[in-house]
Amino acid sequence: MERIMLRIEYDGTHFVGYQVQLEKRTVQLEIEKALEKMHHQHVRIYSSGRTDSGVHALDQVIHFDTTLSLDEATWKHALTTLLPNDIKVKSAHKVESNFHARKNATQKTYRYIVLNRKEHDLFRRHFEWHVPQQVSMERIHEAVPHILGRHDFTAFAASKTNVKGDKTRTIYRFDVFKEHDRIYFDITGDGFLTHMVRIIVGTLIEIGLGKKEVSCIPEAYETLNRRVLGITAPGHGLYLKQVQYK
């Protein structure tokens, strides 16, 4: 028995999310179907984390155990042949039996893209959030330091979050920059709650639009009240950019 780690990317447009759901198309389902064709039995995969409907991945990590003896290049080629064209295997590696894609992850980086101009981009409408009103980058940059560090992010989580107990997380780095008409949010932390990045981005955009004050962020830490924050940004502008391990 060998354990294989895959680094994959996917276009989340036509998936209802990563995790298997009854009679719905998911990333996990498509990969497990491909592995079942190779093994002639079900093979369970484990990921670094789940992504929601419409969310994309540039560097998702999964692992699975196999009885097949294939080299790494053959694994990549075989799965590329069997998988649909909105999932791509970037690399395959043999790892130690105690490696776990989720439990061993130390940091994750997400990217969110906002198109900030009057007209939308027809051909990128599934890959960025269109905000036609002028956004103040100065106000956003004023707010970003309040996100950094270790906080109880309860107010930044969806009510449906599957995380029980402590919702304290550490944000190590948060870069926000604008190139032409697009605003990029790159956020790195030790873990993220359901919709956490999308709520952070939605709040910062509303701060940039003058709809919310910067003070709503420390207020959210103190009160744990979701209502003091901004909207939840749509899923299609979000990308899992990188997963890091020791």
From TrEMBL:
Alphabetized Pfam families for the sequence: PseudoU_synth_1
Record keywords: Isomerase, tRNA processing
Q: Which residues form the active site?
A: D52
Ion transport recorded as keyword: no
Residues reported in the UniProt entry to bind substrate: Y110
Which reactions is this enzyme annotated as catalysing?
Answer: uridine(38/39/40) in tRNA = pseudouridine(38/39/40) in tRNA
Q: What is its EC number?
A: 5.4.99.12
The EC category is isomerase
Quote one Gene Ontology molecular function term: RNA binding
Query: Residue ranges of the Pseudouridine synthase I TruA alpha/beta domain?
Result: 9-102, 144-245
- The superkingdom listed in its UniProt entry is Bacteria
Question: What is its quaternary makeup?
Answer: Homodimer.
Query: What's the protein called, per UniProt?
Result: tRNA pseudouridine synthase A
